[in-house]
Protein backbone atom coordinates (compact mmCIF):
# COMPACT_ATOMS: atom_id res chain seq x y z
CA UNK A 1 0.00 0.00 0.00
CA UNK A 2 1.32 3.43 -0.95
CA UNK A 3 0.72 6.09 1.63
CA UNK A 4 -0.15 9.28 -0.28
CA UNK A 5 0.79 11.62 2.54
CA UNK A 6 4.38 10.51 2.72
CA UNK A 7 5.23 11.51 -0.80
CA UNK A 8 3.07 14.60 -1.27
CA UNK A 9 3.16 16.54 2.01
CA UNK A 10 5.52 19.47 1.40
CA UNK A 11 7.92 20.73 4.04
CA UNK A 12 6.17 23.43 6.13
CA UNK A 13 8.87 26.04 5.52
CA UNK A 14 8.47 25.66 1.75
CA UNK A 15 4.80 26.65 1.92
CA UNK A 16 3.26 30.07 2.09
CA UNK A 17 0.42 29.73 4.64
CA UNK A 18 -1.52 26.63 5.58
CA UNK A 19 -2.28 23.77 3.23
CA UNK A 20 -5.52 24.15 1.30
CA UNK A 21 -6.58 20.66 2.33
CA UNK A 22 -4.88 18.54 4.96
CA UNK A 23 -6.60 15.21 5.53
CA UNK A 24 -5.12 12.69 7.88
CA UNK A 25 -6.36 9.16 8.58
CA UNK A 26 -9.94 10.24 7.84
CA UNK A 27 -12.51 7.56 8.55
CA UNK A 28 -16.24 7.35 7.98
CA UNK A 29 -18.56 4.46 8.57
CA UNK A 30 -22.25 3.96 7.95
CA UNK A 31 -24.65 1.54 9.55
CA UNK A 32 -26.01 -1.18 7.34
CA UNK A 33 -29.04 -3.27 8.18
CA UNK A 34 -28.02 -6.88 8.29
CA UNK A 35 -31.13 -8.98 8.83
CA UNK A 36 -33.13 -9.09 12.04
CA UNK A 37 -32.58 -10.43 15.51
CA UNK A 38 -36.01 -11.27 16.96
CA UNK A 39 -38.10 -8.32 15.77
CA UNK A 40 -35.36 -5.73 15.95
CA UNK A 41 -33.20 -4.83 12.94
CA UNK A 42 -29.60 -5.92 13.28
CA UNK A 43 -27.06 -3.41 12.05
CA UNK A 44 -23.40 -3.55 11.34
CA UNK A 45 -20.87 -0.86 10.60
CA UNK A 46 -19.65 -0.64 7.03
CA UNK A 47 -16.62 1.56 6.29
CA UNK A 48 -16.98 4.15 3.53
CA UNK A 49 -13.56 5.77 4.05
CA UNK A 50 -10.74 3.82 5.65
CA UNK A 51 -8.08 6.14 7.01
CA UNK A 52 -7.63 8.41 4.01
CA UNK A 53 -4.60 10.70 4.15
CA UNK A 54 -3.58 13.35 1.62
CA UNK A 55 -2.82 17.05 1.24
CA UNK A 56 -3.55 19.65 -1.42
CA UNK A 57 -1.49 22.79 -1.89
CA UNK A 58 -3.12 26.15 -2.45
CA UNK A 59 -3.87 26.64 -6.16
CA UNK A 60 -3.44 22.96 -6.94
CA UNK A 61 -5.97 20.80 -8.82
CA UNK A 62 -6.21 17.24 -7.55
CA UNK A 63 -8.42 14.61 -9.15
CA UNK A 64 -9.64 11.57 -7.26
CA UNK A 65 -10.63 8.67 -9.48
CA UNK A 66 -12.91 5.93 -8.30
CA UNK A 67 -15.81 3.78 -9.26
CA UNK A 68 -19.33 4.60 -8.14
CA UNK A 69 -19.44 3.71 -4.47
CA UNK A 70 -15.70 4.00 -3.89
CA UNK A 71 -16.13 6.78 -1.33
CA UNK A 72 -15.57 9.87 -3.53
CA UNK A 73 -18.86 11.53 -2.62
CA UNK A 74 -18.41 10.70 1.06
CA UNK A 75 -15.03 12.46 0.94
CA UNK A 76 -16.54 15.55 -0.73
CA UNK A 77 -19.44 15.61 1.71
CA UNK A 78 -17.08 15.38 4.68
CA UNK A 79 -15.03 18.32 3.38
CA UNK A 80 -18.27 20.23 2.69
CA UNK A 81 -19.24 19.87 6.39
CA UNK A 82 -22.31 17.80 5.43
CA UNK A 83 -21.08 14.71 7.25
CA UNK A 84 -19.38 14.11 10.58
CA UNK A 85 -16.33 11.88 10.62
CA UNK A 86 -15.68 8.81 12.73
CA UNK A 87 -11.95 9.40 13.10
CA UNK A 88 -8.92 11.24 11.79
CA UNK A 89 -8.73 14.93 10.89
CA UNK A 90 -9.56 17.21 7.96
CA UNK A 91 -8.34 20.79 7.84
CA UNK A 92 -9.29 23.36 5.20
CA UNK A 93 -6.83 26.27 5.06
CA UNK A 94 -5.96 25.51 8.67
CA UNK A 95 -9.56 25.25 9.91
CA UNK A 96 -10.86 22.01 11.37
CA UNK A 97 -13.68 20.93 9.01
CA UNK A 98 -15.71 19.49 11.90
CA UNK A 99 -15.00 21.81 14.83
CA UNK A 100 -14.90 25.05 12.79
CA UNK A 101 -17.48 24.21 10.17
CA UNK A 102 -18.76 27.78 9.75
CA UNK A 103 -15.29 29.10 8.98
CA UNK A 104 -14.83 26.28 6.47
CA UNK A 105 -18.18 26.98 4.78
CA UNK A 106 -17.08 30.53 3.97
CA UNK A 107 -14.11 29.15 2.03
CA UNK A 108 -15.70 26.25 0.19
CA UNK A 109 -18.26 25.73 -2.52
CA UNK A 110 -19.23 22.75 -4.50
CA UNK A 111 -20.56 21.60 -7.87
CA UNK A 112 -22.00 18.11 -7.95
CA UNK A 113 -23.38 15.80 -10.60
CA UNK A 114 -26.90 17.13 -10.00
CA UNK A 115 -27.35 20.86 -10.55
CA UNK A 116 -29.82 21.00 -7.58
CA UNK A 117 -32.04 24.06 -7.84
CA UNK A 118 -35.62 24.96 -7.10
CA UNK A 119 -36.97 23.94 -10.49
CA UNK A 120 -39.82 26.43 -10.75
CA UNK A 121 -37.58 29.35 -9.83
CA UNK A 122 -35.41 31.09 -12.39
CA UNK A 123 -31.61 31.18 -12.50
CA UNK A 124 -31.71 34.79 -11.28
CA UNK A 125 -33.92 33.85 -8.32
CA UNK A 126 -31.93 30.73 -7.39
CA UNK A 127 -28.63 32.57 -7.55
CA UNK A 128 -30.05 35.63 -5.83
CA UNK A 129 -31.10 33.93 -2.63
CA UNK A 130 -27.99 31.70 -2.63
CA UNK A 131 -25.80 34.82 -2.79
CA UNK A 132 -27.66 36.23 0.21
CA UNK A 133 -26.68 33.12 2.21
CA UNK A 134 -23.05 34.14 1.61
CA UNK A 135 -23.66 37.72 2.74
CA UNK A 136 -24.07 39.39 -0.66
CA UNK A 137 -26.64 42.17 -0.89
CA UNK A 138 -29.09 42.39 -3.83
CA UNK A 139 -27.02 45.32 -5.18
CA UNK A 140 -23.75 43.34 -5.14
CA UNK A 141 -25.45 40.31 -6.67
CA UNK A 142 -27.07 42.41 -9.38
CA UNK A 143 -23.69 43.85 -10.39
CA UNK A 144 -21.78 40.57 -10.30
CA UNK A 145 -24.32 38.12 -11.66
CA UNK A 146 -24.59 39.16 -15.35
CA UNK A 147 -20.79 39.08 -15.67
CA UNK A 148 -20.55 35.62 -14.08
CA UNK A 149 -23.36 34.18 -16.18
CA UNK A 150 -21.60 35.51 -19.26
CA UNK A 151 -18.33 33.90 -18.20
CA UNK A 152 -19.90 30.47 -17.78
CA UNK A 153 -21.52 30.85 -21.19
CA UNK A 154 -25.09 31.17 -19.97
CA UNK A 155 -27.30 33.26 -22.33
CA UNK A 156 -28.34 36.45 -20.53
CA UNK A 157 -31.85 36.35 -21.99
CA UNK A 158 -32.69 33.07 -20.29
CA UNK A 159 -31.85 33.95 -16.70
CA UNK A 160 -35.50 34.62 -15.85
CA UNK A 161 -36.81 31.32 -17.20
CA UNK A 162 -37.67 28.57 -14.71
CA UNK A 163 -34.80 26.13 -14.24
CA UNK A 164 -37.02 23.27 -15.40
CA UNK A 165 -37.12 24.89 -18.87
CA UNK A 166 -33.32 24.70 -19.19
CA UNK A 167 -31.27 21.82 -20.56
CA UNK A 168 -29.06 19.81 -18.21
CA UNK A 169 -25.97 21.52 -19.60
CA UNK A 170 -27.49 24.96 -19.01
CA UNK A 171 -28.45 24.00 -15.46
CA UNK A 172 -24.89 22.86 -14.79
CA UNK A 173 -23.63 26.24 -16.00
CA UNK A 174 -25.91 27.93 -13.49
CA UNK A 175 -24.46 25.58 -10.84
CA UNK A 176 -20.97 26.75 -11.82
CA UNK A 177 -22.15 30.36 -11.61
CA UNK A 178 -23.51 29.67 -8.11
CA UNK A 179 -20.10 28.35 -7.06
CA UNK A 180 -18.23 31.25 -8.66
CA UNK A 181 -20.58 33.88 -7.22
CA UNK A 182 -19.38 33.15 -3.70
CA UNK A 183 -15.67 33.35 -4.67
CA UNK A 184 -14.65 30.07 -3.02
CA UNK A 185 -10.96 29.44 -2.53
CA UNK A 186 -11.60 25.70 -2.40
CA UNK A 187 -13.89 24.26 -5.06
CA UNK A 188 -15.15 20.71 -4.59
CA UNK A 189 -16.26 19.19 -7.87
CA UNK A 190 -18.13 15.90 -7.59
CA UNK A 191 -18.48 14.52 -11.12
CA UNK A 192 -19.45 17.91 -12.54
CA UNK A 193 -19.53 16.76 -16.16
CA UNK A 194 -21.26 13.38 -15.78
CA UNK A 195 -24.20 13.15 -18.17
CA UNK A 196 -23.36 16.31 -20.10
CA UNK A 197 -23.18 16.45 -23.89
CA UNK A 198 -19.63 16.80 -25.32
CA UNK A 199 -19.94 20.53 -25.92
CA UNK A 200 -21.25 21.32 -22.44
CA UNK A 201 -18.60 19.03 -20.98
CA UNK A 202 -15.86 20.91 -22.83
CA UNK A 203 -17.24 24.27 -21.65
CA UNK A 204 -17.36 23.12 -18.03
CA UNK A 205 -13.79 21.81 -18.23
CA UNK A 206 -12.67 25.10 -19.79
CA UNK A 207 -14.31 26.93 -16.94
CA UNK A 208 -12.46 24.80 -14.37
CA UNK A 209 -9.14 25.73 -16.00
CA UNK A 210 -10.14 29.40 -15.88
CA UNK A 211 -11.01 29.15 -12.19
CA UNK A 212 -7.50 27.95 -11.47
CA UNK A 213 -5.69 30.39 -13.70
CA UNK A 214 -7.61 33.55 -12.90
CA UNK A 215 -8.92 32.97 -9.38
CA UNK A 216 -6.15 31.01 -7.72
CA UNK A 217 -8.78 28.47 -6.67
CA UNK A 218 -7.79 25.13 -5.24
CA UNK A 219 -9.78 22.33 -6.81
CA UNK A 220 -10.61 18.82 -5.66
CA UNK A 221 -12.18 17.00 -8.59
CA UNK A 222 -13.84 13.65 -7.96
CA UNK A 223 -14.61 11.86 -11.19
CA UNK A 224 -14.65 8.59 -13.01
CA UNK A 225 -13.75 10.32 -16.28
CA UNK A 226 -10.10 9.38 -16.79
CA UNK A 227 -9.47 11.83 -19.65
CA UNK A 228 -10.93 14.67 -17.60
CA UNK A 229 -8.71 13.86 -14.65
CA UNK A 230 -5.63 13.62 -16.83
CA UNK A 231 -6.26 16.90 -18.63
CA UNK A 232 -7.23 19.01 -15.61
CA UNK A 233 -5.33 17.75 -12.59
CA UNK A 234 -1.79 18.27 -11.33
CA UNK A 235 -2.04 15.04 -9.40
CA UNK A 236 -4.38 12.09 -9.66
CA UNK A 237 -5.40 9.75 -6.86
CA UNK A 238 -7.19 6.41 -6.98
CA UNK A 239 -9.82 5.72 -4.33
CA UNK A 240 -10.96 2.13 -4.07
CA UNK A 241 -13.42 0.81 -1.48
CA UNK A 242 -12.66 3.73 0.79
CA UNK A 243 -8.88 3.46 0.52
CA UNK A 244 -6.72 6.02 -1.26
CA UNK A 245 -4.26 3.81 -3.10
CA UNK A 246 -2.06 6.55 -4.55
CA UNK A 247 -1.92 10.27 -5.30
CA UNK A 248 0.72 11.62 -7.65
CA UNK A 249 1.27 13.25 -11.05
CA UNK A 250 -0.19 11.20 -13.89
CA UNK A 251 3.19 10.22 -15.37
CA UNK A 252 4.46 8.98 -12.03
CA UNK A 253 1.24 7.11 -11.44
CA UNK A 254 1.49 5.37 -14.82
CA UNK A 255 5.15 4.55 -14.16
CA UNK A 256 4.31 3.15 -10.70
CA UNK A 257 1.93 0.62 -12.22
CA UNK A 258 3.93 0.10 -15.41
CA UNK A 259 0.93 1.29 -17.43
CA UNK A 260 0.76 3.10 -20.75
CA UNK A 261 -2.56 4.80 -19.98
CA UNK A 262 -4.40 6.00 -16.91
CA UNK A 263 -7.06 3.37 -17.58
CA UNK A 264 -4.44 0.63 -17.43
CA UNK A 265 -2.97 2.14 -14.28
CA UNK A 266 -6.42 2.19 -12.67
CA UNK A 267 -6.96 -1.46 -13.58
CA UNK A 268 -3.52 -2.42 -12.29
CA UNK A 269 -4.19 -0.60 -9.00
CA UNK A 270 -7.71 -1.88 -8.34
CA UNK A 271 -8.11 -4.99 -10.49
CA UNK A 272 -11.29 -3.46 -11.88
CA UNK A 273 -12.46 -1.20 -14.68
CA UNK A 274 -13.57 2.25 -13.59
CA UNK A 275 -17.00 1.67 -15.13
CA UNK A 276 -17.72 -1.20 -12.70
CA UNK A 277 -20.08 -0.21 -9.93
CA UNK A 278 -20.01 -0.92 -6.26
CA UNK A 279 -22.80 -0.33 -3.80
CA UNK A 280 -22.66 3.11 -2.27
CA UNK A 281 -22.68 2.39 1.46
CA UNK A 282 -24.24 5.73 2.21
CA UNK A 283 -27.16 5.19 -0.16
CA UNK A 284 -27.61 1.63 0.95
CA UNK A 285 -27.66 2.70 4.57
CA UNK A 286 -30.28 5.33 3.83
CA UNK A 287 -32.58 3.00 1.93
CA UNK A 288 -32.39 0.30 4.51
CA UNK A 289 -32.92 2.46 7.55
CA UNK A 290 -35.76 4.55 6.08
CA UNK B 1 -16.78 45.48 17.57
CA UNK B 2 -16.31 45.85 13.83
CA UNK B 3 -16.16 42.05 13.53
CA UNK B 4 -19.43 41.68 15.43
CA UNK B 5 -21.10 44.30 13.23
CA UNK B 6 -19.90 42.51 10.09
CA UNK B 7 -21.19 39.18 11.41
CA UNK B 8 -24.54 40.72 12.27
CA UNK B 9 -24.76 42.28 8.81
CA UNK B 10 -23.90 38.96 7.20
CA UNK B 11 -26.57 37.16 9.23
CA UNK B 12 -29.24 39.76 8.47
CA UNK B 13 -28.50 39.52 4.75
CA UNK B 14 -28.72 35.72 5.08
CA UNK B 15 -32.03 36.03 6.90
CA UNK B 16 -33.38 38.22 4.11
CA UNK B 17 -32.28 35.51 1.65
CA UNK B 18 -34.41 32.92 3.46
CA UNK B 19 -37.46 35.20 3.31
CA UNK B 20 -36.70 36.13 -0.32
CA UNK B 21 -36.48 32.48 -1.38
CA UNK B 22 -39.84 31.65 0.19
CA UNK B 23 -41.42 34.69 -1.45
CA UNK B 24 -40.14 33.46 -4.84
CA UNK B 25 -41.62 30.03 -4.17
CA UNK B 26 -45.02 31.47 -3.32
CA UNK B 27 -44.88 33.57 -6.49
CA UNK B 28 -43.86 30.61 -8.67
CA UNK B 29 -46.48 28.31 -7.14
CA UNK B 30 -49.19 31.01 -7.09
CA UNK B 31 -51.87 28.78 -8.66
CA UNK B 32 -51.12 26.01 -6.20
CA UNK B 33 -51.42 28.52 -3.38
CA UNK B 34 -54.80 29.64 -4.72
CA UNK B 35 -55.97 26.03 -5.00
CA UNK B 36 -54.89 25.29 -1.41
CA UNK B 37 -56.62 28.44 -0.21
CA UNK B 38 -59.89 27.43 -1.88
CA UNK B 39 -59.55 23.96 -0.36
CA UNK B 40 -59.05 25.53 3.08
CA UNK B 41 -62.11 27.74 2.59
CA UNK B 42 -64.22 24.71 1.64
CA UNK B 43 -62.87 22.73 4.59
CA UNK B 44 -63.60 25.61 6.97
CA UNK B 45 -67.14 25.95 5.64
CA UNK B 46 -67.85 22.29 6.37
CA UNK B 47 -66.79 22.85 9.97
CA UNK B 48 -68.59 26.14 10.49
CA UNK B 49 -71.83 24.80 9.02
CA UNK B 50 -71.99 22.48 12.04
CA UNK B 51 -73.38 25.44 14.01
CA UNK B 52 -76.28 25.77 11.56
CA UNK B 53 -76.79 22.01 11.71
CA UNK B 54 -77.03 22.01 15.49
CA UNK B 55 -79.57 24.86 15.36
CA UNK B 56 -81.61 23.00 12.72
CA UNK B 57 -81.77 19.93 14.96
CA UNK B 58 -83.77 21.94 17.47
CA UNK B 59 -81.09 22.68 20.06
CA UNK B 60 -81.42 26.14 21.55
CA UNK B 61 -78.04 27.76 21.03
CA UNK B 62 -76.52 31.15 20.21
CA UNK B 63 -75.77 30.15 16.63
CA UNK B 64 -73.75 33.30 15.85
CA UNK B 65 -71.50 32.67 18.83
CA UNK B 66 -71.00 28.99 17.99
CA UNK B 67 -70.34 29.87 14.35
CA UNK B 68 -67.66 32.34 15.41
CA UNK B 69 -66.15 29.83 17.83
CA UNK B 70 -65.88 27.18 15.11
CA UNK B 71 -64.50 29.73 12.65
CA UNK B 72 -61.77 30.80 15.09
CA UNK B 73 -60.82 27.15 15.63
CA UNK B 74 -60.67 26.45 11.91
CA UNK B 75 -58.62 29.57 11.22
CA UNK B 76 -56.13 28.80 13.99
CA UNK B 77 -55.87 25.24 12.64
CA UNK B 78 -55.14 26.64 9.17
CA UNK B 79 -52.65 29.18 10.56
CA UNK B 80 -50.80 26.57 12.57
CA UNK B 81 -50.83 24.32 9.51
CA UNK B 82 -49.05 27.02 7.47
CA UNK B 83 -46.47 27.66 10.21
CA UNK B 84 -45.68 23.96 10.65
CA UNK B 85 -45.74 23.29 6.91
CA UNK B 86 -43.29 26.07 6.09
CA UNK B 87 -40.93 25.16 8.93
CA UNK B 88 -41.08 21.48 8.06
CA UNK B 89 -40.23 22.44 4.50
CA UNK B 90 -36.93 23.74 5.88
CA UNK B 91 -35.86 20.16 5.28
CA UNK B 92 -38.56 18.33 3.34
CA UNK B 93 -38.96 20.63 0.34
CA UNK B 94 -35.22 21.21 0.05
CA UNK B 95 -34.60 17.51 0.04
CA UNK B 96 -37.22 17.04 -2.67
CA UNK B 97 -35.70 19.77 -4.86
CA UNK B 98 -32.16 18.64 -4.10
CA UNK B 99 -31.00 21.97 -2.68
CA UNK B 100 -30.63 20.75 0.91
CA UNK B 101 -26.87 20.19 0.71
CA UNK B 102 -26.21 23.67 -0.70
CA UNK B 103 -28.34 25.34 1.95
CA UNK B 104 -26.82 23.40 4.84
CA UNK B 105 -23.25 24.00 3.64
CA UNK B 106 -23.80 27.75 3.27
CA UNK B 107 -22.20 29.95 5.97
CA UNK B 108 -25.57 30.84 7.46
CA UNK B 109 -26.12 30.10 11.13
CA UNK B 110 -28.91 27.64 11.79
CA UNK B 111 -30.79 29.94 14.23
CA UNK B 112 -30.88 32.66 11.55
CA UNK B 113 -31.94 30.11 8.94
CA UNK B 114 -34.79 28.80 11.09
CA UNK B 115 -35.87 32.21 12.36
CA UNK B 116 -35.98 33.45 8.74
CA UNK B 117 -38.27 30.53 7.88
CA UNK B 118 -40.38 31.36 10.95
CA UNK B 119 -40.71 35.05 10.11
CA UNK B 120 -41.83 34.26 6.60
CA UNK B 121 -44.27 31.66 7.95
CA UNK B 122 -45.81 34.23 10.31
CA UNK B 123 -46.15 36.89 7.61
CA UNK B 124 -47.62 34.49 5.08
CA UNK B 125 -49.74 32.70 7.68
CA UNK B 126 -51.29 35.95 8.96
CA UNK B 127 -52.20 36.96 5.40
CA UNK B 128 -53.75 33.59 4.59
CA UNK B 129 -55.53 33.24 7.93
CA UNK B 130 -56.92 36.80 7.73
CA UNK B 131 -58.20 36.16 4.20
CA UNK B 132 -59.78 32.88 5.33
CA UNK B 133 -61.43 34.51 8.32
CA UNK B 134 -62.74 37.38 6.16
CA UNK B 135 -64.14 35.15 3.39
CA UNK B 136 -65.95 32.78 5.77
CA UNK B 137 -67.21 35.61 8.01
CA UNK B 138 -68.70 37.34 4.96
CA UNK B 139 -70.19 34.04 3.74
CA UNK B 140 -72.06 33.55 7.02
CA UNK B 141 -72.78 37.26 7.43
CA UNK B 142 -71.16 37.29 10.87
CA UNK B 143 -71.60 40.60 12.60
CA UNK B 144 -69.16 40.38 15.54
CA UNK B 145 -70.08 43.83 16.94
CA UNK B 146 -67.96 43.50 20.09
CA UNK B 147 -64.86 42.01 18.41
CA UNK B 148 -61.50 43.46 19.44
CA UNK B 149 -59.34 42.42 16.47
CA UNK B 150 -56.26 44.26 17.75
CA UNK B 151 -56.18 42.11 20.89
CA UNK B 152 -56.78 39.01 18.78
CA UNK B 153 -53.81 39.88 16.55
CA UNK B 154 -51.58 40.63 19.56
CA UNK B 155 -52.43 37.20 20.99
CA UNK B 156 -51.73 35.56 17.64
CA UNK B 157 -48.38 37.38 17.35
CA UNK B 158 -47.26 36.31 20.83
CA UNK B 159 -48.49 32.75 20.29
CA UNK B 160 -46.59 32.62 17.00
CA UNK B 161 -43.27 32.74 18.87
CA UNK B 162 -44.19 29.48 20.62
CA UNK B 163 -45.57 27.99 17.41
CA UNK B 164 -42.25 28.67 15.68
CA UNK B 165 -40.30 27.07 18.52
CA UNK B 166 -42.48 23.96 18.33
CA UNK B 167 -42.33 24.09 14.51
CA UNK B 168 -38.51 23.96 14.74
CA UNK B 169 -38.86 20.76 16.76
CA UNK B 170 -41.18 19.18 14.18
CA UNK B 171 -38.94 20.41 11.32
CA UNK B 172 -36.29 18.04 12.58
CA UNK B 173 -38.51 15.01 11.91
CA UNK B 174 -37.89 14.87 8.11
CA UNK B 175 -34.20 15.23 8.88
CA UNK B 176 -34.25 12.09 11.02
CA UNK B 177 -36.82 10.14 9.01
CA UNK B 178 -36.82 11.31 5.36
CA UNK B 179 -39.86 9.24 4.35
CA UNK B 180 -42.10 9.59 7.40
CA UNK B 181 -40.95 12.82 9.03
CA UNK B 182 -43.35 15.21 7.31
CA UNK B 183 -46.38 13.10 8.22
CA UNK B 184 -45.18 12.92 11.83
CA UNK B 185 -45.16 16.73 11.82
CA UNK B 186 -48.83 16.80 10.80
CA UNK B 187 -49.63 14.35 13.60
CA UNK B 188 -47.89 16.63 16.11
CA UNK B 189 -49.91 19.59 14.85
CA UNK B 190 -53.20 17.68 15.12
CA UNK B 191 -52.45 16.41 18.62
CA UNK B 192 -51.55 19.88 19.82
CA UNK B 193 -54.85 21.30 18.60
CA UNK B 194 -56.91 18.41 19.98
CA UNK B 195 -55.63 19.00 23.52
CA UNK B 196 -55.91 22.78 23.11
CA UNK B 197 -59.68 22.84 22.57
CA UNK B 198 -59.65 23.82 18.93
CA UNK B 199 -63.47 23.80 18.54
CA UNK B 200 -64.52 23.37 22.17
CA UNK B 201 -63.54 24.38 25.67
CA UNK B 202 -60.73 22.34 27.22
CA UNK B 203 -63.01 21.61 30.18
CA UNK B 204 -64.73 18.92 28.08
CA UNK B 205 -61.48 16.97 27.77
CA UNK B 206 -60.52 14.05 30.04
CA UNK B 207 -58.52 15.27 33.03
CA UNK B 208 -55.18 13.98 31.75
CA UNK B 209 -55.66 15.82 28.43
CA UNK B 210 -56.68 18.93 30.31
CA UNK B 211 -53.35 18.80 32.12
CA UNK B 212 -51.48 18.52 28.82
CA UNK B 213 -53.46 21.47 27.47
CA UNK B 214 -51.82 23.69 30.09
CA UNK B 215 -48.43 23.47 28.32
CA UNK B 216 -49.86 24.00 24.83
CA UNK B 217 -49.62 27.60 23.57
CA UNK B 218 -52.63 26.96 21.32
CA UNK B 219 -54.83 26.61 24.44
CA UNK B 220 -54.14 30.20 25.50
CA UNK B 221 -54.21 31.56 21.95
CA UNK B 222 -57.61 29.99 21.21
CA UNK B 223 -59.16 31.02 24.54
CA UNK B 224 -57.85 34.58 24.37
CA UNK B 225 -58.79 35.11 20.73
CA UNK B 226 -62.30 33.77 21.32
CA UNK B 227 -62.67 36.12 24.26
CA UNK B 228 -61.42 39.08 22.20
CA UNK B 229 -63.71 38.41 19.25
CA UNK B 230 -66.86 37.18 21.01
CA UNK B 231 -66.73 39.41 24.11
CA UNK B 232 -64.54 42.32 23.02
CA UNK B 233 -61.90 41.54 25.68
CA UNK B 234 -58.91 43.90 25.63
CA UNK B 235 -55.25 43.22 26.32
CA UNK B 236 -55.72 43.64 30.09
CA UNK B 237 -58.66 41.24 30.11
CA UNK B 238 -56.72 38.45 28.40
CA UNK B 239 -53.48 38.95 30.38
CA UNK B 240 -54.16 35.55 31.95
CA UNK B 241 -53.68 34.06 28.49
CA UNK B 242 -50.84 36.36 27.41
CA UNK B 243 -48.33 35.67 30.19
CA UNK B 244 -48.35 31.88 29.74
CA UNK B 245 -47.79 32.47 26.01
CA UNK B 246 -44.79 34.68 26.80
CA UNK B 247 -43.33 32.06 29.17
CA UNK B 248 -43.85 29.22 26.69
CA UNK B 249 -42.45 31.40 23.87
CA UNK B 250 -39.26 32.20 25.83
CA UNK B 251 -38.70 28.50 26.48
CA UNK B 252 -39.73 27.09 23.12
CA UNK B 253 -37.35 28.94 20.77
CA UNK B 254 -34.10 27.85 22.51
CA UNK B 255 -35.56 24.38 22.96
CA UNK B 256 -36.54 24.24 19.28
CA UNK B 257 -33.07 25.31 18.20
CA UNK B 258 -31.47 22.76 20.50
CA UNK B 259 -33.69 19.94 19.20
CA UNK B 260 -33.01 20.92 15.58
CA UNK B 261 -29.27 21.10 16.32
CA UNK B 262 -29.32 17.58 17.76
CA UNK B 263 -31.27 16.36 14.75
CA UNK B 264 -28.84 18.00 12.31
CA UNK B 265 -25.94 16.37 14.11
CA UNK B 266 -27.66 12.98 13.92
CA UNK B 267 -28.33 13.50 10.19
CA UNK B 268 -24.67 14.41 9.58
CA UNK B 269 -23.51 11.39 11.51
CA UNK B 270 -25.75 9.00 9.58
CA UNK B 271 -25.50 10.54 6.11
CA UNK B 272 -29.12 11.71 5.95
CA UNK B 273 -28.37 15.32 5.09
CA UNK B 274 -28.62 14.73 1.38
CA UNK B 275 -30.95 15.00 -1.57
CA UNK B 276 -33.64 12.40 -2.28
CA UNK B 277 -33.70 11.36 1.38
The number of helical segments of chain B is 12
Calculate the mean pLDDT score of chain B and round it.
92
| Mass-distribution shape of chain B | globular
- By CATH, the topology of chain A is Rossmann fold
Give the H and E element order of chain A.
HEEEHEEHEHHHEHEHEEHHH
What is the string of helix and strand elements of chain B? Answer: HHHHHHHHHHHH
Measured on Cα atoms, how large is the radius of gyration of chain A?
20 Å
Question: By helix and strand content of chain B, what is the structural category?
Answer: mainly alpha
How many individual domains of chain B?
1
Residue windows where pLDDT falls under 50 for at least 5 positions of chain A = 1-13, 283-290
Largest sheet of chain B: none
Instruction: Name the structural class of chain A.
Output: alpha/beta
Tell me which oligomeric state these chains represent.
Answer: heterodimer
- CATH architecture annotation of chain A: 3-Layer(aba) Sandwich
Task: Please provide a brief summary of the model.
The complex is a heterodimer of chains A (290) and B (277). With 290 residues, chain A is an alpha/beta fold. Chain A contains 11 helices and 10 strands.
Defining key terms:
heterodimer, A: Rossmann fold, 6-stranded mixed β-sheet, 4-stranded antiparallel β-sheet, 38% helix, globular, disordered C terminus, B: 277 residues, mainly alpha, 0% strand
Describe this structure in words.
The complex is a heterodimer of chains A (290) and B (277). Mean pLDDT of chain A is 86; it is low at 1-13 and 283-290. Chain A has a single domain, classed as Rossmann fold (3-Layer(aba) Sandwich), CATH 3.40.50. Chain A contains 11 helices and 10 strands. In chain A, strands 6-7-8-3-9-10 form a 6-stranded mixed sheet, sandwiched between helices. Chain A has a 4-stranded antiparallel sheet with strand order 2-1-4-5. Chain A has helices spanning 4-8, 72-79, 101-107, 123-133, 138-151, 168-181, 198-215, 226-232, 250-256, 262-270, 281-289; strands at 21-37, 40-56, 61-65, 87-92, 95-96, 108-112, 186-190, 218-223, 235-240, 243-248. In chain A, α4 (123-133) packs parallel to α6. Helix content of chain A is 38%, strand content 26%. The relative contact order of chain A is 0.18. With 277 residues, chain B is mainly alpha-helical. Chain B has one domain. Chain B has helices at residues 2-28, 30-56, 63-88, 92-97, 100-104, 110-140, 149-171, 173-176, 181-195, 207-213, 217-231, 239-270. Chain A binds chain B through residues 30-31, 74, 77, 80-84, 102, 105-106, 108, 110, 112, 114, 116-121, 125, 128-137, 162, 178, 282, 285-286, 289-290, and chain B through 9-10, 13-14, 16-18, 20-21, 24-25, 28-29, 97-99, 101-109, 177-179, 265, 268-275, 277.
Amino acid sequence: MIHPSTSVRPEPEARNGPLAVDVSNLRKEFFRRDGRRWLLPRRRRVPALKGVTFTIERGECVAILGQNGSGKSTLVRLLSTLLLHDGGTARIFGHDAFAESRAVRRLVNRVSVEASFFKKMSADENLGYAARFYGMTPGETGRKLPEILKRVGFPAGRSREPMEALSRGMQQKVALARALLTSPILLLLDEPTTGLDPRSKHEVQQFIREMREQHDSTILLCTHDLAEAESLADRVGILDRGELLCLEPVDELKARYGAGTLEEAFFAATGKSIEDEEDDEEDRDRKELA
Amino acid sequence: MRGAAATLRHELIGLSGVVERNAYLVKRYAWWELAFFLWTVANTLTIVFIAKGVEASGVDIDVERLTTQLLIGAVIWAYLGIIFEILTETVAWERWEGTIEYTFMAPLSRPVHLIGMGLFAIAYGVLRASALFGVVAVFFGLDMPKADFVTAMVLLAIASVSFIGIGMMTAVLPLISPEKGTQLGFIAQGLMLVVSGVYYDVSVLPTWMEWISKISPATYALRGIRDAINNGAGIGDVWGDIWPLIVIGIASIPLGLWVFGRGERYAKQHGKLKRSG
